[in-house]
Amino acid sequence: MNQSKTGLNDSFYKWIDDVRRSKRKLPELHEKLEYYKVKLIGYHGISYDQIGSGTSNKNGDENLLYWIDKINQVEDEIEINNEVLRKYENFKNSLKDELKIILDSHIERSNVLVILEELGLKRSSYNQKKEEVIRLWLVYDNKGFSQN
Q: Which of 3, 36, 38, 79 is deepest in the core (most CB within 10 A)?
């Protein structure tokens, strides 16, 4: 049952891509969030004089809402990426140490020869263990869907 990167294992490889993307995007998103927060702090809000005079600064209010909306969007993206990484960590923690190394090698795109040497495996044993990781993930993923 040696599957390629297509077919039954598509969801596993998509998930691996999602984990890689989340690891890459999180620092960028945190940087963007800090930038938006600085912009929001630097925003000139309504002064007491404007409140008393009955005039409103509609354009200023729209700018304030713009930055608050941007912050909310980035926070939502951060939460989505954190959820992907939490699922990855939970799954990884359920694996034996040898399988954890194989999973991490997939995520980090490590050289297979280095992993084979580190684990003292032959290529066929490595492929069997990789298939075991994929099977365990498919069970884990399906169990997660049934709980929702």
A: 36
